[in-house]
Amino acid sequence: MGEVYKCEDLRLKRIVALKFLPEKLTKDVLAKERFMQEAQTASSLDHRNICTIHEIDETEDGQLFIVMACYEGESLKARIEQRRPEPDEALDIAIQVAEGLGRAHQRGIVHRDIKPANIMLTADGTAKIVDFGIAKLDRQTTLTSQGMLLGTVAYMSPEQARGFTIDQTTDVWSLGVVLYEMLTGQRPFRSDFDQGVVYAIVNEEPESLTVVRPELPAGFSAVVRTALAKRSADRYQSMEEMIADLRVLRSGTGTARALTATLARQTVIARSIGVLPFLDLSAEKDQEYFCDGMSEELISALSKIPGLSVASRTSTFAFKGKAHDIQSIGQQLRVTHVLEGGVRKSGERLRITAQLITVRDGYQLWSERYDREMTDVFAIQDDIAHSIVQALKVRLGDQTTGQLFQRRAESLEAYHLFLRGQFFWNQRHKGGLRKALECYHQAIAIEPTYALAFAGLANCYVTLGAFTYVAPEEAFPRAKAAAERALEIDDTLADPHTALGTLALLYERDWKRSEREHQRALDLNQDYPTGHSWYSWCLAAMGHVDAAVAEQKKALALDPLSLMINTLVGAVFYHCRRFEEARDQLLRTVDMDKNFGTARSYLGMVYEALGEHEKAIAEFELARAMMDLPMIAANLAHAYAVCGRSGEARALLAELETTSARRFLSPFYVAAAYAGLGEAERAFEYLDNAVAIRDAWIPFLQRDPRLDVLHNDPRFSDLVTQMEAGV
User: What is the pLDDT of residues 585-627, one digit of tens each?
Assistant: First the structure.
């Protein structure tokens, strides 16, 4: 942004630094404005760790320059290149920079370009932050539009690298990168190309400090890990928080336990555990479903223990088949302990191993091996759960001598079939749902009073209907029958109430019953993520925007790594017309799994709402390649239509109508495509059909932005009246 000269102030007889805007940019209005902003920003700050600005002026030929204090010394960049700072020296520098940034943040200023080259080290050891040329003042209009990258790629936060809105936690991230570089002599995110660096920043975890410099106390790793959390909400929320932990390290108390600010930021509950998917160690590798079931049963049982917080199944299973260190897993799950284990089956003999690890230091708190017959699997589960409880010293209250597991299956074969069903159900695609149905039906055939199997059936049928894999009249009545049967057998289950509440919304259009069933489910289990997520849809359909968003956020807090819940958060934002938040949420979800077609389909809908049609088409085409689902093809047809590619839109609709004889085609989504083409008659023809067959998406008639073009037609008001009356 400029050229700097060492000069003498002839009036005040002092040595100063003059920063000139490069002559080639003198006529660049935007560059001049940004240069002026740098001077105004820095001159408004009075702090020992921020460079002093004396004045700003302009030469006779129109060149702008800033008069700054001249500091004898070197840049931090030069210091690192010469030698790696000692840990105490690195902490001193980081604390000073954090204090200077803290003052800037108090004034509403975010630096946005913290890097070693912008930190001067004076002869007396003082760190000075320079170059506020791209700082953002919250109180004035930014000079850059959203999506424009400013800063130095290697030090950008994930949100900055992707052009998202930034706040003070962006400077926290950048300082974390600088601290990592001071301690290791290398940057945490590296590549030969800027694109590779950006990918690493957004998607990858840096090599842990405990690996690069194992001699450093664990607290160093904890501070850097917190500063470099991918989600800004998981980082230090202020420089004061970060300074508190840096000072703890500087005092010589290097244990992670002493870092109160870090632990508070990670919101780790005192007694909390994540149960990782057990590994199938059998030679045949045919026990995956049993390993998953073992983990699920332990999660369910441990959740019943007062005073123990247990990470949800979906979040812990996000680590399945992936190599992560325990500290990284614990940070993402926000737990103090992690349980991992394995299952080896030989004939009718089982060997189950389990170990409980403390996240803070990686210490193995407890381990055990169980050699049992297959018929003794329930006792094995109980033994493991009680051993964990004893190791954690959790008081069980009234359940101290009672069983944590409710053995709802008398038949081991039925139990295994249920576990297989759960394994396939959690895949959430049509093939998996069909296999899950088979397993649940077989379990019920063996044990007709197996309530959990009936609940599984209900969840499968609701999902098949909601995603329009099958026609409403095929899916929803079966879902209702299964849910009601589950409750006849066991009325303490939350899942069937959630299923009933969802189909009351999507099929029966009984708004009051939908809300009543959802609330009953959450009364039975407040920690049921799917319950909060599906209740959010009920609230969104009724237009209760704030409540819908709040419920979806509760679901996400309970299950932060669930791809489906992350997607549904974005979907609810979309239907509540909060498109920027929807886009940001769905982009984060796609970052978690680039092949999750449901997220990409919703992202396409959001891009459409934002007027970015080419991006929308690209997302729909990707989603269609991942999921053979007619509603996604209909979405693509609408995107073609609104960007002027009407021929392609009509060809795609004709193709869909041809295949509708052998597979269900949602008339609601076809109506949206015709609305995009401006063919109101065809759109209303399909909407009338959608109301008649009780299409699952009709409750969102008024919430779908693609149908806004039809709102002024009297026929639309008639449809809304029919829909709300449950006709």
Answer: 898 888 878 889 999 999 999 999 999 999 999 999 999 999 8
- Helix and strand totals (H; E) in the chain: 31, 15
Phi, psi of 459 (to 5 degrees): -60, -40
Q: What are phi and psi of 562, to 5 degrees?
A: -75, 120
Of the candidates 692, 657, 687, the one whose C-alpha atom is nearest the C-alpha of residue 672 is: 687
Res 297: pLDDT = 76
HEC per residue, 63-98:
CEEEEEECCCEEEHHHHHHHCCCCHHHHHHHHHHHH
Calpha distance 174→169 (Å, rounded): 9
The full DSSP string for 127-151 is EEE---TT-EETTS--SS-TT---S
Give the N- to C-terminal CA distance of the chain in Å, as an integer.
Answer: 66
Given a cut of 50, is residue 545 above it in pLDDT? yes
Mean residue pLDDT across the chain: 84
Burial of 680 (0-12, 13-18, 19+ CB in 10 A): middle
The tens digit of pLDDT for each residue in 101-117 reads 998 888 778 888 899 99
Same domain (yes/no): 607, 485 = yes
* Of 647, 671, 694, the domain-final residue: 647
How confident is the model over 37-96, as pLDDT tens digits? 656 766 777 889 998 888 878 888 777 788 888 888 999 999 999 998 999 999 999 999
Range of the domain at 315: 272-407
- Residues 272 and 275: their CA atoms lie apart, in Å, by 10
Active site residues: 113
Could you tell me if 189 and 88 lie in one domain?
yes
What would the 3-class secondary structure string for 449-500 be? CCHHHHHHHHHHHHHHHHCCCCCHHHHHHHHHHHHHHHHHHCCCCCHHHHHH
Q: What is the CATH number of the domain that holds 352?
A: 3.40.50.10610
Look at residue 677 in the predicted model and tell me its pLDDT: 96
Q: Which of 647, 682, 716 is the last residue of a domain?
A: 647
Q: In Å, what is the CA distance from 483 to each residue of 246, 287, 460, 461, 498?
A: 54, 29, 11, 10, 9
What CATH number has the domain bearing residue 46? 3.30.200.20
**Residue environment code for 589-601, b if the CB has 16+ CB neighbours within 10 A, otherwise e:** bbbbeeebbbbbb
Tokens encoding 376: 């003794």
pLDDT-wise least confident of 166-180, 304-318, 336-350: 304-318
Number of separate domains in the chain: 5
| In the chain, % of residues over pLDDT 90 | 40
- Buried b / exposed e along 388-412 (16+ C-beta atoms within 10 A): bbebbebebeeeeeeebeeebbeee
